[in-house]
Fold these 4 entries.
Entry 1:
Amino acid sequence: MKLYTYFRSSAAYRVRIALNLKGLPYEAVPIHLKRSEENTPSYRAISPLGTVPALITDQGHTITQSLAILEYLEEIYPHPPLLPITPHERARVRAIALTIACDIHPLNNLRVLDYLQKNLGASEEEKLTWYRHWVTEGLTAVEALLAGHPDTGPFCHGTTPTLADCCLVPQVFNARRFGCPLDDMPTIRAIVEYCQNLPAFILAAPENQPDAE
């Protein structure tokens, strides 16, 4: 498989974690978002929105959107599973993952932050205020979903990693990079610390990517 990725993209980071957890080899193809490589005609032919990640499967199919890729990997390569067994447990894992992927990340990805500054005239401090507000609000909700829940374990759900952990760890990486306070999120911090000691998460980390700067 071939994964179009960018070392700091939290969406691509999610997929790298999942591929590693499932032990699936892939070729990483860096798309440098800060150099506008996502806007080249050749990449737009792969990902019309110009976002990463994009996955070229073993069968030659192209899949965009990180959650669609995660679900595809789960269906085609079900072992080890990244979703629990029962429908209500699977729904809980998806709810956590989608809170991050749909409610937090879209408001704070690079193209939105660039638009705030270049098109709306936001200052650097105003951009950071925007970022920290939406990340803090979103992660506060995720903490509420996790804290004290009987299904929360060392991971977001139980004793094995799921799609929720694939989404949480990259989001917290970015939150820390932008100075978001996490003091009131002990459950999130404990889960992320646990995950970050596992080989699949270590190998997927931004600093360990071939395009890291």
Note: The chain has nine helices and four strands.
Entry 2:
Amino acid sequence: MENLLGYSLERMTDCFVARGQSKFRAKQVFGWIYGKGVLDFDKMTDVSLSFREELKRDFCLSLPSIIAKQVASDGTVKLLLRLEDGAKVEEVMMPYDYGCPICVSSEVGCSMGCAFCASGLLKKERGLTSAEMVGQLLVMNQVLSEYGLRVTHINVMGTGEPFDNYDNVMEFIRIANCQAGLAIGARHITVSTCGLPEGIRRYGKEGLQTNLALSLHAPNDKIRNKIMPVSLKYPMKELIAAIKDYLSTSGRRVTFEYILLSGVNDTLECADELARLIRDNDLFAYVNLIPYNEVKEMKWKRSSKSSVSAFHNALLKKGINATVRKEFGGDIDAACGQLRVKYEKQQ
């Protein structure tokens, strides 16, 4: 039975019209689901009884179940969810002054193999459906409703490589962004990639006003090859070419995510090289420096506060727009993949 939560309004309209219903019927059902939060066909009282029975026969509106919930002292909420086939995924909400952004997962496990990331400790089993990604958002909204809050921003940068599951991620974005649905503004939605050039170019042609973040984490191939295997297939030259194409077609700025690892990529020389990379290629980009959440199964150590500050200042002096990301969830398993790995080991 197919989960109707995976249908954008356009797809739902086409589906219902093919079943002999009017276009308005799709708007009704879509509004019940997202406008009123109703996930029971029987409660959609302005939909004809015969069509409700048809929907119950052919579709479901099922959400993932919560296996574990962690709430940090700073208000960060981390959920481990079980999907219908028993697969497990994580999502996290980090409270900011401007709202409640969530990081959603796009795959069960990850095969990109980034050396510092807990997500890669459990390899990819499959991509998530659009319904399963929507389910993450709706479950988090249910949890946040206890505090009078709701999801305001989406970052597709949890477990998995979004461009390795491109079509489902795009359908999820359409559902979340739809004004008749969850109505999350396009500029409040970010997709993060470890660097798949074809996906970057394709995303730039979508005509969306959503954001792109690139997990760069190194200023050159020598360092990037050591910590990000994807760089062996797609070296920096090819990656930068794809980013240039994205900028020219989308007109949108790109964010370079840069996790600082002690003694690996956090030197002033690295900062200078990163600044040259951005400046010499005339990239419309800004750098988000990320203090590393250490993972006990891995050897990498977080950079000292002085190293982070020095790196940040070096970029600013070179005219690069850069910030240091605020840290969240220090007293829970907040890093991508940590909670799932911990749970699986306990089992």
Note: The mean pLDDT is 93.
Entry 3:
Amino acid sequence: MRLVITGGGTGGHVYPGLAVAQVLENAHRGLGEVLFIGGQKGMDAELVSRGGLAFMGIWAGGLRDGSLGSLFLNIGKIVGGMIQAFFILGRFRPQAIMATGGYVSVPVVLAGWVRGIPSMVYLPDVEPGLAVRLLARFARRVAVSSPRPVYGGLLPPDKVVETGYPVRRELLLVDKASARERLGLDPSLKTLLVLGGSRGSHSINEAVAQALPQLLSICQVVHLCGVTDEGWLSGQRQALEEGLRARYHIYSYLHEGMADALVAADLAVSRAGASVLGEFPAVGLPSILVPYPYAGKHQGRNADFIVKAGAAVRLDDGALHGLLPQVEQLLRDEAGLDNMSRCARRLFRPEAAESLAGLLKAVGEGINVHA
């Protein structure tokens, strides 16, 4: 069976596709029949190639923000991307398309619709953005990671199937002791994981840097800071006294080691992109979520969903001066952390990747899967 997976822009839109591809690999004993179509710029190609999938990049652009000139430029990119996707689909001839969100998925699904190729859209976030709402009109099925009351009437109810958020299988095969050993961490210390999404977060990085000596006096820190801020943060590390410097582990990004970082941590400070809905629950990771304020409302909705479940606390971007006391309070409350971890695990749907893979195959085979 020949299948296309499309999506991108952030790891939260790429990793669900890779998790589904892993299930398809097990079923088909090889990935030759799966093609991932992503954006020509950004991390899409690197993430997908590391996952072992064939990749092709196309043009894509968003319609939410920017000047009138940017709007027309992005419309041109969408049209150009649709033409590119039309010919890619014509050569590859897939039986179905799975879109995981992000603007790059729009031209692929639309080109597939013109060619008569059925599609399934997957919503990794709690609230659908413009791309998912548009594509839901053209898709046979819309898979969602959260219960129906969360996203309200924003999606066609007759198409919706709740599957949960798919995670890569390596995340479920790592134990805490081995993960800490591979990352060079002290097993006797609490571990704080700081990450701002696949590109890093400047405001979170600044807040951590300002409180770094105090943070390192109570825990060790694994900091995924992004490429842009890595240089000056490395300078901050060198300025620390030797005992504290050994507790500060800084990376621009982790690929193969990401599972280790998530499992090794006792607490995370993170943006609230789509991946926190699946990966944090999968490992039972309590978190302080800092929604990115310039990405629409979906990160705030994601954070509120996890907070309501008892697995996280929310700290808005403008209140990051309160990061240190919040971290101190949580790390010193062992019983509270354990409870947050249990609450996180209750959100995990271990069958999500298999459910999505089965739904995609059913769409490709023309089998009616009831919402």
Note: The chain has a mean pLDDT of 92.
Entry 4:
Amino acid sequence: MKSIVLLSALILLLVACGGEEAAVISEKAELAAVDTLYLTAVDTIGVEMGEESLVFAFLVASAYTPDGTIAVLDAQKATLQIFDPTGEELLKIGNSGQGPGEYQMPLGMAVTGNGYVLSDMAGSKVIRYNSDGAFRDEITDFGMMPPTRITGTVTDSYLAQHLMLDFEGEEGPRAEMMFASFSDSSEPSVVYESQLLDMQGGMLSSSTQLSMAGGGNGEAILAEKSDSIFKVVSFSPEGDEIFRIEEVWDRIPLSEEELLEDQLSIAMSISDEGSSIERNREPRTDEYRTIIDGLGVDNQGRIWVAMGDTGTPYFRVYSPEGELLNIAIPDGSIAERADYMISPYGFLAYDSDPEDWPKVYLVEVNE
């Protein structure tokens, strides 16, 4: 019997923002000279009790589609659902299971210009569906595991942070962590950046985690999630670098109150008997703030960098060429711990660790 258990921390500890916090953020010299935008929730999808399709368990992804509907992936319920903006369920894509087009532990979802891509960790595969939800194909030869950190593009491809393992190389075992574009196979179409990993003693060592976003003209943008580096890089569809912002930052300690906060721990089990996800509260192990928390690109090509350096949620908004244009601040109508999905099709947010119940926020920008 094979058994894999993975444990990861999936929490953002954020502080609500308002006028005072906006003033604190704007005290930073480079931010003081730009205008401020505000993000507000105009509606939500999800209820505490009631219609089964609207009672979520563990949201791991949500995104607008090209036709204005909303895709929602619930890992614990193992469902990929499509809603209209009023919250009416239009479609449920695929089913829980082990057959073609079915999934057991869906942890990643990407909306592309031609449909949906779903990453099933337990099934060791990536499944593709057409825009109408019909099963298209699945790719199963990724090796140890498929990429689970994925995001869509306006084309038929998707972006991924993916671990590539080669145990048959002439120079011995090789491990590589890459940021790449994938389409019709497990081989990347374009590799934008890669990092060789140390495999001494049979253990892999890499602390690099990325946020990724696809632009309206096929650009691929990455941001490194680090406590000591601010890094945002934009690439053309062919892999040429458009701009790079990379600066070393001083580490910013978490407050005493934040260090006492528990964090959400996710235990994922895969065995011959099936797969499961369990969530627990654990003492947090990090000591410093993550400089960048997330990334997105809107329909104007502006790049939205979600910041974590102040403890107050806000965004730095850049032009497609890398010029700082604005800062943007949630107005308090969105959960403090929310993850944002900003794409050329629209703005959404969702909370993996809600204080009340899971929901998706439909977000607008007040400029």
Note: Confidence is low (pLDDT under 50) at residues 1-27.
